[in-house]
Amino acid sequence: MHDVIVIGAGAAGLLAAARAAEQGRKTLLLEKNRKPAVKILMSGGTRCNITQSTDINGIVSAYGASGKFLHSALASLDPQAVVDLFHAEGVQTKVESTGKVFPVSDKALDVQQALLRRLARSGAEMLVETPITSIDRADDRFVVVGPRQTWIGQTLILTTGGQSYPGCGTTGDGYGWAAALGHTIMRPRPALVPITSAAEWVRGLSGVTLPDVIVRVLEPGQRKPLAQQQGSLLFTHFGLSGPAILNVSRVVSGHAQPASLILECDLLPHHPETWLLEDLQRASQTRGNQLVLTHWTEHLPRRVAEAIFGIANLSRDRKCAELSRAERSRLASTTKKLAVAITGTLGFEKAEVTAGGIALNEVDSRTMQSKLVPNLYFAGEILDLDGPIGGYNFQAAFSTGWLAGTSVANNTNHKN
User: Fold this and answer.
1) Domain 2-191+348-410, CATH 3.50.50.60 — does that match?
2) How far is 257 from 154, CA to CA, in rounded Å?
3) What is the C-alpha separation between 161 and 170, in angstroms, rounded?
């Protein structure tokens, strides 16, 4: 029998198992994949953005309403402590202009290997290629059943992840086990996922990146956005991607009728519409013979400017002096409120994280222990927690895993 059984050897599971074992608990970590931490290996373009260069409040704020749940976890392992942990394992880090923290080597493999070194030193046992078929409770113990073996544990930590990138093995197994043990599962849905559009003009811009736009997700007839983000945007053959798009995608995937939504893009967020109108007025007076399209390429890439002219129903041959007041208004408005008809998202297959999961009000945020089942703990993406792009989700996984692993050693409910 084991003191602690951890299921899922990802970011949260590796730290949870290591922490439990370091404190004298006989710990078993079970992983169904051939390799542990597969998602770490492929994240950040195989570079692995381990955290964000901010403090506890910065992480909490980024998570919005659910951020307060992370206070205790972050107090036990904050962003600087995550960086220090990897430095202690010989993995030096760097902070990029976006605040993202990466290994200096740009190799996610170094992150995985650091966690495995920590786990090996802890004395925890890890079994890979070990899928679980069922989890039951018997005599206040957990009975974990695999195809060829059964394990008994006093404490169980579920760190099975969500449903994003199912090719990594994150196929939502943990939700069924948690539900069978009495927990509520908030509907899982893709987050940090590209958004799809059938608009031909969008496909025509495939490959074009705009470094700074504001995107808003709107319901028809409403001006208050369901979500709004500023950042980079990438046009693709299937629709839209880039940080600004990924950060609003959870609203699209969670909507009952995503195709009814409008994605509105402010392509020049640092210039109000009045400034653009004045700019066009000045151009008509000082460079009247210049094509308006040529002038507009001073603000935007030519392909984007051409698309805007088509949407605004403006001739590319119009000169600055020929543009009427109504046409100037149409051009400025289209640039500031470019509406993109969307169809949905690319789904879990291309989602970086999962929104939804174990209901947070059923988990003690001070320990990560279930409020419903003694000695059952959760950590990582299986929880109803999803943050923006930029290392926030790995930080939450590391912190909740660390807290869960630490808490099991302090749990007085164990039976010897």
Assistant:
1) yes
2) 45
3) 6
Q: Looking at residue 416, what is its pLDDT?
A: 43
Tokens of 143: 């009975």
pLDDT of the residue at 415: 47
Query: Which parts of the chain have pLDDT scores under 70?
Result: 412-416
CA distance 328 to 375: 66
Q: Decide: pTM greater than 0.70.
A: yes
The pLDDT value recorded for residue 110 is 98
Strands 27-30 and 2-7: parallel
Q: What are the boundaries of each domain within the chain?
A: 2-191+348-410, 194-346
Strands 363-364 and 369-370: antiparallel
